[in-house]
Amino acid sequence: MKITIVGTGYVGLVTGTCFAETGVTVHCVDIDTKKIENLNKGILPIYEPGLDTMIERNVQQKRLFFTTNLSETLADCEVIFSAVGTPPDEDGSADLKYVLDVAREVGRNMNHYMVIVTKSTVPIGTAEKVKKAILDEQAKRGVSIPFDVASNPEFLKEGDAIDDFLRPDRIVIGTESEQAQNIMKRLYKPFVLNGHPIIFMDIPSAELTKYAANSMLATKISFMNDIANLCEIVGADVTNVRKGIGSDSRIGDKFLYAGIGYGGSCFPKDVKALIKTADQNNYSLKILKAVEEVNEGQKSVIYTKIYQYFKGDLKNKKFALWGLSFKPNTDDMREAPALVLIDKLTEKGAQIVAYDPVAMPETQRKIGEKIQYASDKTAALNDADALILATEWNEFRVLDFELLGKLMKNKLVFDGRNIYDANEMAENGFTYYGIGRK
Hints:
It is built from 16 helices and 14 strands. The longest helix is centred in the middle third of the chain and has 32 residues, at 203-234. Helix content is 42%, strand content 13%. The strands form three sheets. Strands 3-2-1-4-5-6 form a six-stranded parallel β-sheet, sandwiched between helices. The chain has a six-stranded parallel β-sheet with strand order 11-10-9-12-13-14. The chain is an alpha/beta fold. The protein has three domains: 2-201, NAD(P)-binding Rossmann-like Domain (Rossmann fold); 211-298, Rossmann fold, CATH 3.40.50; 301-433, NAD(P)-binding Rossmann-like Domain (Rossmann fold, 3-Layer(aba) Sandwich).
């Protein structure tokens, strides 16, 4: 079986590589010439654990190819996945420019039946726009070549994407024909041998499912952060509250950890897009609007604690910042809470020395020399007025209190992810601030 993946970003690379792992011949296409040149040299544009070795293996086995020419990949191609970006417009709606560009190019070059699958997260109704774009291009050519469109949203967690793809909880596919359904069923057969289902549905429902899933998870995060803020006011501890409600099987214990807000490429964008879709249909998603409001405010919670502790005098204060990416096991800095913290602290004249295991190059690309970058986590601590934890990488979880005490100017820790034990901090002479804790 031969397929084409258009877009070599996070979703496209993982999707194409995992399909190639099952023996499918995969051509990954991107208009970025430099990115394709790098991929052919084994240089990846993203960090995802295990992806580099899997790509290398499938390239060597001649199952995975990278090119800038979409038309040359279409011969004998059965399925085309559109995995290009859908960045948010200023009003929060998803920009479909790249999705429709792909559809038009397919319409200009296709010569046999194929299934065109939208893998990107797109608003409800996008499939109809894709179909129209293809038909318009065929009409210009004076041809009528049958095809189907489908929606196949991804449910990948950055940092664990390969396992998510190879062993999915479920696969959601929106189709309009039995022929398209059979082709997609054949393509995904290796991934459902674990007994988890392929859920076939109509296309609008599939398009909405991804937004609904991410918005529900974002809601759990913002709800718990709101509860955490209340905990501090009334003298409760959010870690105990989390255990108490997380043990309820109706609620579950995932996404109930208080912190400094969600970020990344999915939750912020998808919440905004779903709110915009509802507004365009004269319906207000009040809960999601509150979710977004809570999240934006949560990104400033640690800054407020720091500001209050130092009584507003942050000029020339030096802070060690551990973690930059929006979550561990990725270098993704999109909507990262650490960026908000950096902006607020540096505006007040503070100095920041940061360390992140993989995200420093991407941070430097985004903000340049606004902060200093340490060679390791220990180097960031030298003469620091306080340690701030923004991302819960595993290597930050166990502290050497003696070393911290020697290197830092003050025994002061601001924990944005609640990974440290407050009692242990106190026993070692440290002043400790978490989220929603006594």
